[in-house]
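Journal club prep — side note

Before the paper discussion, L.F. wants everyone to see what a predicted structure for a comparable chain looks like in C-alpha cell form. Sequence:
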Amino acid sequence: MITCVRTGIRSLLFLLLLVCGSSLHAQEKKHDSLELRYRFVPGQTLTYRVFGYDTIVIYDSTVHALSREREEMVTYRCDSIVPQGYVMTLRTTAYKATERRDTATPVVVTSHPWVGRSIRFLMSPTGRRLDLLASPNVPATGPGGPFAPMVLPNLGADSTYIGSSDQYVNEQWTVDALYPPIRWRGNCMRNVERRFDTLGNPVVEVSFSEVGNNAYRQPGKGDPTTSSLSNGGGSYYCSARYAYPIAGNYEMINNLTMDFPAPAARKLRGRHTTGILIQFISDSEHPGFKPEERPQRSSKHGGRSRKKH
C-alpha cells in the first residue's frame, strides 16, 4: 500500500514538473527579445527630410499668433566611436517654411540661423545626449524651438522585447535644438509595439510619451526666462536591419511662462504646439538602402500594415 502511494506521489510530482516546465517554455517563447540601440560606424552619415509645423500663441494685452509649416534637410554623421558611445555631428543643410503672423499674408522663408551650423556632441549607444563638444559660440534656437522633438530619439534601455512597456527618467542635453543647451529632464513612457515589414524592410515600432518641466534663458539683455510644461508623444519606426529610424512622427505641446527682467518686469503666458514627421533619405554606409513606403500607424490607431508578397 505504501509503495503504491509513493509511486502515485512520484508520478504526480513528475506531471507537475512537466506542466510547469512546458508553461515556462511557452512564456519564454512569447518574448521576442531585441537590442534597441544605434550601431553606427565612423564616417556613417544619415540624411533625413523633416516636415514640421508650429503654432505659437502669446497671451499679451493683444493675443499674438504665429503659424509655420516647414521642411528641413538634416544630417547626422558619426565622427568616431568612444567608450561612452558615439561622437556625432548634426547639421541642418536646407530650410523652407511658410509663416503667417497674426492676420498678415503668409510669407515663404528660406533662411534660418540653424542652417549650416555644425553641432558636435557625445551620444550614448541608445541616443542619450551626454555632452556638447563643439558648436558656433552664437546663441540660437533650432527651427522647432528649444524643446523640439528629435529625429534620432533617446531610445531608453537597450535590452527589451516586443510588447514591453517601461518608464524612465529622460535626462539629457538639448544639443539638437538650442545653444547654449540646457539639461532637459522628463518622465518618459516607452512601448515597444511590434515588428512588421514595409515593402520588404523589417522595422520595429517604438512609441513614446513624455512630460517635462524645464526652463531656459537666452544670454541677451532683456531676454526672458522661459519655463515650459511640456507634454508630447509619438512613434518611431526603426530599421531592424540597421538600427535607426526610417520614419516617425512626434507631437509636443509646450505651455510657456515668460518672465522678463527689469525694466520690463512682466510675465507673459503662451503655448507652442509643434510636431515633426521624419522621412529617411539616405545612409552613406548602405547607399542601396532606400525604403519606398512609410510604415502605417499601428492597429490601435486604426490600421495595420501588411507584408507585400
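L.F.'s comment for the group: The first strand starts at residue 33 and ends at 35. Keep this in mind when we get to the figures.
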